[in-house]
Write a structure and sequence with these properties.
By secondary structure, the chain is of the alpha+beta class. It has helices at residues 2-25, 110-113, 165-170, 272-275, 327-332, and strands at 33-36, 59-62, 73-79, 105-109, 122-127, 130-140, 160-163, 180-188, 195-198, 221-224, 235-241, 267-271, 284-289, 292-302, 322-325, 342-349. The protein is 12% helix and 28% strand. The longest helix is centred in the N-terminal third of the chain and has 24 residues, at 2-25. 34% of the residues are buried.
């Protein structure tokens, strides 16, 4: 009797495991098949000429997928020329063009190429302690190879970023070490304009020009954004100057707490994308510039979507990369008062 109970339990567990197995396997990129290398045509790539060429009769693994893309996607960086006559064979698949070795361009394994969905988009490549932004222009075919169309080269592995010389140079890799290197990649999300608004002339007494604030010009088109560049531990931005006091050029009270704030308090407003629907309200960011740093509280939005109206004191929409800061922030960074107004900085979210 006990033996029968044990057997039933075992079968139940086994069935459950088999039911779960497909979902577990779905997380893995497995080979899609194999191809056998044919004999290269006369004058084509041969194993004697190039050790990377297909070896006649050898089986090569193919893939229709690549590892899952994340914010830290591991990959193998290889070297390729995208120029006419280079080892990339024909023109790039994305734009039917050749590309100079001096341009940071890449080809991605089939799964990551994703049926051209990453064509002409950018990725950030991190390796050798440095990073470079490169444009995706081609596919490194993981599904086929060892034929005339592919120059008798094997199919790509499923985790390859094939890069131009410019990428290797930007990563600071010595020429003698070019060829293959472990890297990780992040998609460089581009923030594009969402539209335009036409400027209106401020009524008399409107548009406070304290701190050299700009006023909208009649008829001028101003770009608007609903997004900002991706946030990282080293987010580049432009620091500007604003007064959050009553009667200052910040207009009304701050959006986060409906309060005014003293110029002596280190507070900031962030462009709409970074403000993130008030999710950074009353949180702190670290600002780095002029060789110093300061911790400041987010109290307001620097609106990148609207402007040139009474709600915005007839000032233009913010750019999408603005940290609009009180005088206290500029003082803490040790910037001479004569240079207040606009400065390149970087910032990161601070631990509260």
């Amino acid at each position: 009797m006990k033996k029968q109970v044990y057997s039933s339990s075992f079968i139940l567990v086994l069935v459950c495991f088999l039911l779960l197995l497909p979902s577990l396997e779905a997380q893995t990129c497995r080979p899609s098949g194999k191809i056998r290398a044919g004999k290269p045509r006369s004058g084509q790539c041969t194993i004697e000429q190039d050790p990377d060429c297909c070896k006649e009769g050898k089986l090569y693994t193919t893939y229709k997928c690549s590892p899952t893309v994340s914010n830290h996607t591991k990959a193998t960086l290889t070297l390729n020329s995208f120029e006419a006559g280079g080892d990339g064979n024909g023109p790039s698949k994305c734009d039917n063009q050749y590309h100079s070795d001096d341009k940071p361009v890449v080809a991605l394994s089939t799964g990551w190429f994703n049926k051209r969905k990453r064509c002409m988009k950018y990725i950030n490549i991190h390796g050798n302690g440095k990073s470079v932004k490169a444009k995706v222009v081609d596919e490194c075919d993981s599904t086929m190879g060892c034929d005339a169309k592919h120059g008798y080269y094997p199919p790509c592995h499923n985790n390859i970023v094939v890069a131009s010389q410019a990428v290797w140079k930007a990563l600071g890799v010595p020429l003698s070490q070019w060829g293959e290197m472990s890297v990780y990649c992040i998609e460089a999300q581009s923030c594009r304009p969402s539209g335009y608004i036409r400027g209106k002339k401020p009524p008399p007494g409107q548009c406070n020009t304290e701190n050299d604030s700009d006023c909208c010009k009649q008829g001028k088109l101003y770009t608007t954004y609903k997004c900002s560049p991706p946030v990282s531990s080293h987010t580049k931005a432009t620091l500007t100057l604003n007064s959050f006091e009553a009667g200052g050029d910040g207009g009304g009270p701050s959006e986060c707490d409906n309060q005014y704030h003293s110029d002596d308090e280190p507070v900031v407003a962030l462009s709409t994308g970074w403000f993130n629907n008030e999710k950074r309200c009353l949180k702190y960011i670290n600002i780095y510039g002029n060789g110093k740093s300061v911790k400041a509280k987010v109290v307001d939005e620097c609106d990148s979507t609207m402007g040139c109206d009474s709600d915005h004191d007839y000032q233009p929409p913010c750019d999408n990369n603005i940290v609009d800061a009180s005088k206290a922030v500029w003082k803490a960074l040790g910037v001479p008062e004569s240079q207040w107004g606009g400065m390149d900085i970087y910032w990161s979210d601070a631990d509260d």
